Amino acid sequence: MVDIPESLPARMFLLAYDLRKQRMAKGGSRLGYVLRGAALTELYLDGRLSEDGRRPAPGTPGDDPYGLLAEIAGSRPRSWQHWIRKGSRAFVATVRDELERDGWIRVRRHRVLGLFPSYQVTVKDPRVVKELWGGASQALRGRPVAHVNSYDAAAVALAAAGELTTVLPRADRRRYKRRIEELTARSGPAAPAVRKVISAENAAAASAV
Predict the structure, then answer these.
(1) What's the CA gap between 196 and 201, in Å, rounded?
(2) What separation in angstroms does the CA of 181 have from each of 157, 158, 184?
(3) Which residue range(s) make up the domain with 16?
(4) The model scores a pTM over 0.90
């Protein structure tokens, strides 16, 4: 049995790693949205975050590892999409640094053209990614949805919403559309919010062209 990270954001970061190419999959801002969605989903599944009028609201008091509960509690009511977008780029670095600190990955830092910071990530034990992928694959193709592990269900929902091809190639997103919808319904409002944010971003990019 291979150990895997406990947190959902850490799991989603590792699922974005392309084992064949031994690098993080290209995704631009999408990875930040997926990781923010994962953090919100984890809080929601544990009851620490609830929903009030289709907006996130503090739930049962508990751990707040990324400070999201404090942010939400200290803000006027805002949409799930707002909290998906907010600080998404910095959040990638937060999760990456956490994984590096805990020994899951190695990070090589350098600067492109001597100016722009760049990071090369290597997963120390590829079996960890394979274990996570296996859980997501079983959630997609295996037992009845009601019996799927909640984090595996959320991994599929977030990967589909974030167009994470290391987990769900486009063909699989089409083929398993209904199953993905069922897993998404189990996972709470954050994954649909990720999908809406990315759809809006794609539409804006298309209109600019």
Answers:
(1) 9
(2) 8, 11, 5
(3) 8-88+124-201
(4) yes
Alpha-carbon Rg of the chain, whole angstroms?
A: 17
In a domain, 75, yes or no: yes
83-110 pLDDT, tens digit per residue, is 999 999 999 999 999 999 999 999 998 8
The encoded tokens of residue 148 equal: 């799927």
Q: How many domains does the chain have?
A: 1
Alpha-carbon distance of 182 to 191, in angstroms, equals 12
Residue 99, domain member (yes or no): no
| Residue 151 within a domain | yes
Distance CA 41, CA 27 (A): 20
Q: Which residue has the tokens 């049995």?
A: 1
Tell me the per-residue pLDDT of 5-64, one tens digit each, with 9 for 90 and over. 999 999 999 999 999 999 998 777 799 999 999 999 999 999 999 999 999 999 999 999
CA distances from 125 to 4, 100, 158, 183, 199 (A): 10, 13, 23, 28, 34
For residue 59, give the DSSP letter.
-
In a domain, 114, yes or no: no
| Phi–psi pair at 136, nearest 5 degrees | -65, -40
Q: In the chain, at which residue ranges do the beta strands (DSSP E only) sit?
A: 17-18, 23-24, 49-52, 55-58, 105-112, 116-123
* Residue pair 120/107 in contact by the 8 Å Cβ criterion: yes
- Per the structure block, which two tokens stand in for 157? 């929902």
Cα(64)–Cα(78) distance, rounded to whole angstroms?
A: 19
Q: How would you classify the pairing of strands 49-52 and 23-24?
A: unpaired
